[in-house]
Amino acid sequence: MTRRAQMRNRPRVPLLKEIPLLIWLVFLWGALWQDFSAGNLIFGAVIAFVVANIFYLPPVELSGRFNPIYALGFLFRFFYKLVHASFEVLWLSIAKGPHIKNAVVGVKLRSHSDLLVTATGHALSLIPGSLVVEVDRSTSTLYLHCLNVSTPENADKVRKDVRDTESWLIRSIGTREDLEVLKAEDALAREEAAVLDGTAATGKGVPS
């Protein structure tokens, strides 16, 4: 089947369902240009509409849910980390310069949703000091090139930050299945913390 035939046979997606995707594309446009002025965002909206409706792309499956409270929390966290990482990279460039040790860290995500994997990867790449260099779609694994990572503890810190970013996105726009997995993970972590607290209170070691 030719590309033109594929475009003709492509089902029309209602504009209402496209709005979350368009908003995300406009946000990425502003972040990439580091310009959130009205004119640039309007131009980005035009580009996003053209990309989503004229060029043939695989369908993006949305979750059907959106939590504005967690979305605002994600945005606040994102901008905080953006500013913090910018100053951290500046300090590292002055203090260590070419002696900074870097590493590629692989992180397996919880979700297999293309939207969540893409959103997580873009959010991490926009923060100075980390860049997604490869994505294994079959296993939902991101490989990031990270600054100032020289020990296993540093790598574990990167993995935790990546999964924390994903968890905020799952709570904001993730599927109900991904949200249930996240809730079960949180419940298990609380149970393990309670066991450790109880062990410390009684002065007994953790049973083997």
UniProtKB/TrEMBL annotation:
Domain of life where this protein originates: Bacteria
Protein keywords: Cell membrane, Membrane, Transmembrane, Transmembrane helix
Subcellular location: Cell membrane
InterPro entries named in the record: Cation_antiport_E
Any Pfam family matching the protein: MNHE
Main location: membrane
Coiled-coil ranges per UniProt: none
Membrane-traversing stretches: 12-32, 38-57, 69-92
Record's bilayer topology term: Multi-pass membrane protein
Family: Belongs to the CPA3 antiporters (TC 2.A.63) subunit E family.
Descriptive protein name: Na+/H+ antiporter subunit E
